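Re: your question from the hallway

Yes, I did run it. Sequences:
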Amino acid sequence: MVDYIRETLELMQANLTRTVLTLVGLVVGVAAIISIQVAAAGMAAAVNGAFRGINMNTFFIFPKSTQGSTQRANLGLSDLKLLDRNVPGVETAIPFGQTRTIVSAGHQHIMLKFGGESYRRFSTAPVVAGHAITRSDVENATPVCVLSAKAYKRLFPHAADPETVLGQSVYVGPKRYVVAGILGPATLSTASLGFDINNDVVIPYTTFYNDYQRGRPLFGIQVLGSRDATLATLEANAKRVLSDAHGGSIYQTFDFGFFTKKVDGFFGVIGTIVGAVGAISLLVAGIGIMNILFVSVSERTREIGIRRAIGASRATILIQFFVEAFVLAFSGSLIGMLAGLGIGELAQQILIARISGTIAALPWTQAILLATLFATIVTLVFGTLPALRAASVDPIEALRYE
Amino acid sequence: MNDIAIDLQEIVKTYKTGSIEVQALRGVTLRIERGEYVAIMGPSGSGKSTLMNVIGCLDRPTLGNYRLDGIDVSALDDRALAKIRLEKLGFIFQGFNLLPRTDAMKNVSLPLFYAKVSPKERRERAQRALAEVGLADRAHHRPSELSGGQQQRVAIARALINNPAVLLADEPTGNLDTATSEEILSLFKSLHRSGRTIVVVTHDEEVAERANRVVRLRDGLILSDTPTPHGHFSEGSVVQREAIPQS
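Structure:
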């Protein structure tokens, strides 16, 4: 087998121009498909990664505004307990509420996003000093707050260390909150999309309710599902539980899957289109390979005759031409694959990494396996006819052939 | 060990060209013993090429029986015939038929490749075979870099490498000038002396008379089968005869 491969490589070298021209089609086709796939995967990963700042098992539930009695559909604190108890997989449910407001600390007065949080956290940013909102903070509605990395930096620009800020106060209007914890930056944040889902300053949701929401129906409820729960099931159950409790009122839910699905769909479409174009170029490339093999068979009729006379069986000749087809197809698709990965990586470095700071891992092993698989298919589809023709050469005729 | 190298019994070969049937061989019975040097002669259309193809296991007889080195090859399939050609036969052609892009060494070792011999042993045996035909220093030359006589000697080395039962040559000097022909024919002679069985198909009387036995064909039948005069000569006189053109 090694000898066949060596012989084919020598043959390719002897007809270098022809070989290169034949392989160009294959290389370009494969490279186009792979580079777009890599770039698209990188884009999708970057955009989806942007949502990783928030726990992805989060959803929001609101009364539908267009229905008979909005009065009856109004949500209250009792609904939080209802969801907590009656919907399996709910970790915590808190009133949805956030506001952009001026937060002050010392001489700093900064417009920041301000909202409620539970002791089971919606944010995934790490705690770098102090602690997050605790269970007793929630139960006692204590006036404490946790600052995001951005809020810390802007409210306490001169602090040497986050630890020194703990126990200091920040004010929202006349209301005073004691800093209990500081967060670090989330590994990925929605800020790269132009907006940030997480609040800059959070206080216990009970405190937020008491200070800003009391006496009014809740705008909506923010629910955190457990890791192993399915969002679709959670949402359906939550809607049913609330609807039963509110006399058949209608509720709607919202989650980030909507975004990620859109993103995946968008890149899926691009991938399909490029895939189709690539497939056509590969078909043409395959026919090119078939052509070069046919030329090779008729050019080497005499050689085949010699080999047959010397003792090669039909099967041996068949194998020889299959190996030739495979070596051609494999070298073409491997070069294309590597070029594609290179271009894809470059696209990621230049375009995507700049936006999101992330690079999707390149599927090297997969690419080589894929190149092998692809070369095998090309060999079988486009190499069979020439190989059969080579094997059916009549040695007597071939030796007479000048 | 089998004393009979080639045993053809009532071989008939019929070709169909459209509706016309051509009988190329019409009942050839021929027995060639081990160690013989036989020339097969005949005008074109006499069936000598067909006979050569049948003997060479490139073609199967329509009727009749053919035993090569004791093996009945008339009923073998393609794979088995390829194996017979590989192990029992060595071909030498008029047009040399070397692989053009391949050096002498590789050409000579090609049969060993099909016999699945290891690359190392292939190289060693090819080197030895090339030395036997006097081309040890041309191992890495391509056919285009060799003279006609040298090419034919490479072909002879290739034919010998598997130690075949029969060496089958088709007009081996047809493309060579007189001096080179003489060179090749004396190589044949020494191969014969070392015990090889050689069958030469030719229309050249001078080539035929070097053999020990001449079989003449006409219209698909054996016309005559006679020993050549020097077939009866002693070893010594044969050596003398071929010493002259070489000097």
